[in-house]
């Protein structure tokens, strides 16, 4: 997985979609996605594997690609992955899709950490590359992985929702003995006290200079705590000219107008759905009318009924 590149624009016409990767969302979700892309563009890049300079195969993002084609986008942002030498192309793409699908499930924090570890191990990826695939930054990936460094009692409490991942960060850099001491002595506080207050209290009470046995690298943690207490230097706000300010206001007004138009479209869709609900419901309940419906349209009516009728 050393050949992953940053997102760049790829012509929609050059992206092939294997039939088994095609997905169809609900009418409501498809409309939401289309409106979102119309207003803000495609925020999360598609994932494609490169066959040649003018040929790519889609790994992830079929619905985004379909909306882009509907809106007549000539190009879409893509994470481009070159298949490693000696690995069957289809098998490789299937494995990547499996990982991305797993990421979308309602995973426990410990399960997500294990997924990321496997992704890094099996595909030789770093946190930045994992983040590009999952649509987050490298810092978020690093924070997700911290769960794997905690003792089992803490991990179970996080998975159960008894303590937050933010509160659990008090254990970062600690040895197993240090984590167990904090957990046994302050479990109730970890469940009830705000994370910021708790971190400050426990770091002062079990400071790495007075309790080095609780830390894997006490000197490193000491330096980190020292930097955190240093005051940030004040920075001057940049001077914005009237022309630049007018441009900013104009851009904001344009965005607001686009959002108002999108809301009007959405209200119109809701009205059309309301009007269509009774008609389609009547058609599906009447055998004579049902016979008049073309076979290619029947599936769409039934799908509509499942959602609205």
Structural write-up:
By secondary structure, this protein is an alpha/beta fold. The model has no long low-confidence stretch (mean pLDDT 80). Strands 1-5-3-4-2 form a five-stranded mixed beta sheet. The protein contains 14 helices and five strands. It has helices at residues 27-40, 62-70, 89-104, 109-123, 127-134, 138-146, 152-159, 165-168, 176-192, 195-205, 218-229, 242-285, 287-291, 295-308; strands at residues 8-11, 15-16, 46-52, 55-60, 75-81. Among the domains are: 1-84, Alpha-Beta Complex (Conserved hypothetical protein from pyrococcus furiosus pfu- 392566-001, ParB domain), CATH 3.90.1530.10; 161-229, no CATH class; 262-309, no CATH class.
**What is the CATH architecture assignment of the domain at 1-84?**
Alpha-Beta Complex
Number of extended strands: 5
Output the helix-strand order.
Answer: EEHEEHEHHHHHHHHHHHH
Largest sheet: 5 strands, mixed
The best one-word shape is: extended
Q: Superfamily at the CATH H level of the domain at 1-84?
A: Conserved hypothetical protein from pyrococcus furiosus pfu- 392566-001, ParB domain
Helix content: 55-70%
| Overall pLDDT | 80
What is the class of the domain at 1-84 in the CATH system? Alpha Beta
The whole-angstrom Rg is 26 Å
How much of the residues is beta strand, in percent? 5-15%
Number of H- or I-type helical stretches: 14
Q: End-to-end distance, in Å?
A: 47 Å
Poorly predicted regions are: none
Q: Which structural class should the secondary elements be placed in?
A: alpha/beta
Remind me, CATH topology of the domain at 1-84? Conserved hypothetical protein from pyrococcus furiosus pfu- 392566-001, ParB domain
Strand arrangement within the widest β-sheet reads: 1-5-3-4-2
């Amino acid at each position: 997985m050393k050949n992953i590149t940053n997102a760049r624009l790829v012509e929609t016409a050059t992206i092939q979609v294997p039939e088994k990767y095609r997905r169809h969302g609900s009418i409501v979700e498809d409309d939401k996605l289309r409106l979102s892309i119309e207003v803000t563009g495609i925020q999360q890049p598609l994932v494609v594997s490169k066959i040649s300079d003018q040929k790519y195969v889609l790994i992830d993002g079929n619905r985004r690609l379909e909306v882009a084609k509907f809106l007549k986008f000539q190009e879409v942002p893509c994470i481009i992955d070159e298949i490693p030498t000696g690995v069957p192309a289809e098998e490789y793409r299937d494995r990547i899709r499996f990982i991305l699908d797993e990421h979308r499930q309602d995973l426990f924090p410990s399960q997500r950490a294990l997924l990321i570890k496997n992704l890094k191990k099996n595909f030789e990826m770093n946190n930045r590359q994992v983040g590009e695939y999952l649509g987050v930054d490298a810092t978020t990936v690093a924070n997700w992985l911290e769960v794997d460094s905690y003792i089992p009692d803490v991990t179970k409490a996080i998975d159960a929702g008894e303590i937050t991942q933010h509160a659990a960060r008090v254990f970062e850099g600690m040895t197993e003995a240090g984590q167990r001491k904090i957990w046994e002595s302050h479990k109730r506080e970890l469940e009830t006290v705000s994370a910021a207050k708790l971190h400050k209290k426990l770091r002062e009470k079990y400071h790495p200079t007075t309790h080095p046995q609780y830390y894997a690298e006490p000197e490193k943690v000491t330096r980190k705590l020292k930097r955190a207490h240093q005051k940030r230097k004040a920075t001057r706000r940049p001077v914005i000219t009237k022309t630049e300010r007018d441009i900013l206001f104009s851009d904001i007004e344009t965005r607001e107008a686009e959002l108002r138009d999108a809301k009007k479209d959405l209200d119109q869709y809701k009205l059309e759905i309301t009007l269509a609900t009774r008609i389609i419901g009547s058609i599906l309940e009447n055998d004579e009318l049902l016979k008049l419906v073309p076979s290619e349209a029947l599936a769409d009516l039934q799908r509509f009924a499942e959602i609205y009728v």
